[in-house]
Amino acid sequence: MYPRLKYLRENKGLNQTQVASILGLSQTGYSKYETGENEPSIQTLITLSILYNTSVDYIVGITDVKNRYEMNTDAAHRYSEYARMVQGKS
After folding, report:
1. How many Å apart are CA 5 and CA 54, to the nearest integer?
2. pTM (2 decimals)?
3. What is the CB-side half-sphere exposure of residue 30 using CA atoms within 13 A?
4. How far from the centroid of its chain's Cα atoms is residue 13's Cα?
5. Is 66 in a helix, a strand, or coil?
6. What is the pLDDT along the chain (90 residues), one digit of tens a residue?
7. Are the C-beta atoms of residues 45 and 16 closer than 8 Å to each other?
């Protein structure tokens, strides 16, 4: 369902375990996003868009325009922590 996730991850030089750690998931849990077995939450999509310096629209295939933002891995990790705290999953 999200064929761009693998492309974006590999383009950033990350493995599934590294991305899963940022998202607070197991490697298996994350790999299910890449295969389309599970759908990521909106919070996860936002974190991934920050991590990959692109838009949620690009990740889900609404657009082919890869917007670039001034964010990095640390920003994605901070957002992920914030999202878990808000959801009561800290």
Report:
1. 11
2. 0.75
3. 21
4. 14
5. coil
6. 578 999 999 999 999 999 999 999 999 999 999 999 999 999 999 999 989 989 898 999 888 878 655 455 676 777 777 777 767 755
7. no
Q: Residue for token digits 């899963």?
A: 20
Scanning the chain, the segments in alpha helix (DSSP H) are: 4-11, 16-23, 27-35, 42-51, 56-60, 73-86
Q: d(Cα 57, Cα 63) in Å, to the nearest integer? A: 6
Location of structure tokens 């890869």: 66
CA 8 to chain centre: 9
